[in-house]
Design a protein that fits this description.
Blueprint lengths: L9 H11 L4 H12 L3 E4 L4 H13 L4 E5 L6 H13 L4 E5 L3 H11 L8 H20 L4 E3 L16 E4 L5 E4 L7 H10 L56 H14 L3
Parallel strand pairs: 1-2, 1-4, 2-3, 4-6
Antiparallel strand pairs: 5-6
The structure holds iron/sulfur cluster (SF4).
Length: 265
């Protein structure tokens, strides 16, 4: 029997955002687990914020669902870390998504493997095909997802609330338990509870994504300065957490995929 969806409207979620705003992350997570049950998942690249949420949720619901994506360009340290996390949290239900081979092949054949260095549009297209689409597909059927977004990460994230409707993904609920935490508070939690941390943090990385698009940050730089560092005046976002409005972008993706279909992919 199909499970009934748990759906909120804008007014309800606005009131919930107010009610939950001064709640601790654990309380927000507990509310979400109780409200959405099986139909909520932690979406994470296993960075510090996601690991804190995973650890908190595991204490309450060890079989919590975790979604992550292997873009095909991850550093080997990330792939090894996934195994470490599986060992530490053996009951977690991991769902590792991968991009569509045909879409990746078509993009690379037309634009090359390093297309993301050539323009912001190309970079957003690569993120869309390798990361956003697999995750978007994984969100289908869910009522809510946890993110590790924090208000102090980047200007585009300054106004996030602890719960919000995700109109880019069928109006499901986005739960941001760490919205009002700082990076220091997250680190403190990880140390206190001996939570595994990604090994690249020890090498100066502060935000870890695909290998060719991530570098360590220098003293005084913003935490996300190591992502797509060659770009100027572009949001440090992959498109998962904000609408992409780059004019011909969607047209370009469709053109590539159209060509791919003609080629039999
Ligand atoms: S981070 Fe870089 S390699 Fe990874 S999907 Fe985005 S553009 Fe492509």
């Amino acid at each position: 029997m199909l499970k009934e969806r748990v759906v909120f409207d804008d007014l309800e979620i606005g009131q919930l955002a107010v009610d939950l705003d001064d709640q601790e992350p654990e309380d927000v997570i507990e509310w979400a687990l109780n409200t959405f049950g099986e139909n909520v998942a932690i979406v994470t690249a296993l960075q510090a914020d996601g690991m804190a949420i995973l650890d908190m949720a595991y204490q309450m619901s060890p079989e919590v669902r975790v979604l992550t994506v292997d873009t095909g360009r991850l550093p080997p340290e990330t792939l090894a870390f996934v195994d470490d996390v599986r060992r530490r949290y053996p009951l977690v239900r991991f769902d590792v998504r991968r991009p569509d081979h045909g879409e990746v092949d078509a993009m690379v054949r037309r634009n090359g493997t390093e297309l993301f260095r050539e323009s912001v549009e190309n970079r957003l297209m690569c993120c869309q095909i390798r990361k956003v689409r697999p995750l978007t597909q994984a969100l289908e059927g869910l009522d809510a997802w946890f993110t590790g977004l924090r208000r102090d990460q980047w200007a585009s994230r300054a106004a996030i609330t602890k719960v919000q409707l995700d109109h880019d993904h069928d109006g499901i609920v986005k739960v941001n338990p760490l919205a009002d935490w700082s990076a220091e508070e997250v680190d403190e939690y990880l140390r206190e509870f001996d939570v595994p941390v990604h090994p690249l943090y020890a090498q100066g990385f502060t935000s870890i994504g695909c290998q060719p698009c991530t570098r360590p940050v220098r003293d005084g730089e913003d935490d996300r300065a190591g992502r797509w560092w060659w770009e100027s005046d572009a949001p440090k976002e992959c498109g998962m957490h904000c609408p992409i409005e780059t004019g011909g972008f969607e047209h370009e993706v469709h053109a590539i995929l159209g060509e791919a279909n003609e080629d039999g992919y």
